Q: What sequence folds into this?
């Protein structure tokens, strides 16, 4: 497979979610009702999404009504158009509209890069692109699950870049609930069960997240020299070969803020800020915690043609 986007689907979704589903089953943390029959367990693992179950009806999967299916399809089509418009706007600059020579793919760390204003602005553009792509991708799976399996699933992306209120809200409720659910049941709960140490369980969860993201970029780019859209091979290795370790460092950075929130998040000053500051300002403050190091995570994708390879799936306006 030459297309980076399809390689991402093959190596970055089903194997990893299946791995954590296996661990959660070993420790008895599968969602209630999932293991009551082979059919339910097969459906749970085949969908990759977080399915909705009815606690009042023996945890049966909630059936997808015709109105639910229609709503899913309409929302999916809207997100396709929104994402295509966003790509049309920023694709000419390769999603880095602000001039910046920082390349997170190069080995080593330069902490002064974290103070680069243009890098932070480019990281916002990148993060919004990730949000849109993950949202439309998981929404497509939701439509498939609703139509083929006739069950409802939860929304994977809940507009985290615009509505988050805290680090735990971002990672626990807003950003990629598929991965959150898999890590919570397949890593956090088993570690907490064996150690009774919540901080250790949090750290282990974010380290696991970092490691499987390292595995994703390895699978996407391994033994494959990417092509530019003009068909020419890249000449510089640092533009396409990821600097391994930075995905894990990014996750550990964010895990640190989850631990800090666990210890001091209930302090009066933070509760006052949440209640009295404008919601957009609270969201901006939360996002700014990860922004200085976001390029550790995004550059393996931004410095290659990963997103250019996904253009085929979206209606876009291109300058000829």
A:
């Amino acid at each position: 497979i030459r297309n980076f986007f399809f390689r991402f689907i093959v190596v970055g979704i089903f194997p990893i979610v299946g791995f954590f589903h296996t661990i959660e089953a070993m420790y008895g943390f599968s969602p209630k009702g999932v293991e009551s029959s082979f059919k339910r367990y097969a459906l749970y693992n085949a969908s990759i999404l977080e399915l909705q179950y009815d606690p009042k009806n023996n945890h049966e999967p909630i059936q997808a009504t015709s109105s639910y299916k229609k709503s899913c399809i309409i929302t999916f089509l809207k997100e396709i158009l929104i994402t295509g418009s966003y790509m049309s706007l920023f694709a000419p600059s390769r999603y880095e509209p602000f001039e910046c020579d920082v390349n997170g793919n190069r080995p080593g760390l330069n902490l002064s890069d974290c103070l680069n204003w243009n890098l932070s602005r480019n990281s916002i553009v990148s993060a919004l692109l990730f949000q849109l792509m993950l949202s439309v991708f998981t929404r497509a799976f939701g439509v498939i699950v609703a139509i083929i399996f006739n069950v409802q699933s939860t929304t994977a992306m809940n507009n985290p870049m615009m509505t988050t209120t805290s680090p735990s809200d971002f990672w626990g409720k807003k950003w990629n609930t598929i991965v959150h659910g898999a890590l919570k049941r397949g890593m956090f709960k088993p570690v907490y069960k064996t150690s009774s140490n919540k901080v250790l369980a949090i750290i282990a969860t974010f380290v696991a997240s970092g490691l499987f993201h390292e595995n994703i970029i390895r699978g996407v780019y391994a033994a494959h020299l990417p092509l530019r859209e003009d068909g020419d091979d890249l000449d510089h290795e640092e533009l396409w070969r990821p600097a391994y370790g930075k995905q894990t460092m990014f996750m550990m950075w964010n895990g640190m803020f989850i631990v800090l929130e666990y210890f001091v998040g209930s302090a009066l000053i933070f509760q006052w800020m949440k209640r009295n500051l404008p919601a957009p300002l609270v969201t901006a403050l939360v996002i700014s915690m990860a922004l200085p190091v976001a390029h550790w995570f995004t550059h393996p994708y931004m410095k290659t043609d990963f997103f250019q390879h996904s253009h085929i799936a979206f209606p876009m306006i291109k300058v000829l």
Q: What stands out?
A: The radius of gyration is 20 Å. The CA atoms of residues 50 and 181 lie 7 Å apart.
